[in-house]
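1st attempt posting a full record on here, be nice pls
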Amino acid sequence: MDGPVDSDQHPARVTARPAAEGDPTRPDPTRPLPLGLAALLATVAGVCLCLALPPWGWWPLAPIGVALFVVALGGRTRRARAGLGWLVGVMWFGPSTLWMAGLTLPGYVVGVLVAWGGMVAVVAALCPADRRRLVALPALLVVFEWFHQQAPFGGIPLSLLATTQTDGPLLPLARLGGVLLVGLGVAGLGVALVLIGERRFRVAAIVAATVVAVTILGAVWPI
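the predicted structure (as tokens):
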């Protein structure tokens, strides 16, 4: 019984890839990383997103966190993606909502491990493992943050991607599309970083330039 065909061993794809991509040595974004390395990237991704939030406010880490999240999901099964997403969620929301433990320790533990960790796990599970994730993950993160503001209990909009830009350059996007557009801008820059890592510099420049252009429009848009 034949197993899954490796794209690097498929003659048609081997001959087509250099023509389509222009560089046969370019990293294959659909080849899964070793699971341990993917788990490490997911953990670091969550830490980056956390440290980009107040009180730390290291906003450049936010797109880096999204980029690492995208890379970690590449080529993985749905179950593995869910587990990696859970790691991202726990490391993203665990430290950034630690103050809640002083109000209700059980609520904090359930919130981090089940609610936030679980929701980010669902985002990762729904995200395709192939190249479509470069579009799908930012879109799913926006849906997650919208839902996060609605439920449970009327919404608990904590640790949003937009909050990383309180002192960051993408804040003007809020004048055009609120916190969701700011979050999409952060995710867009994360995708641009992934594209740079894949040596797709032209596409990365287009994505980054689009985010910058819309941000400038937001800055000059009359209130």
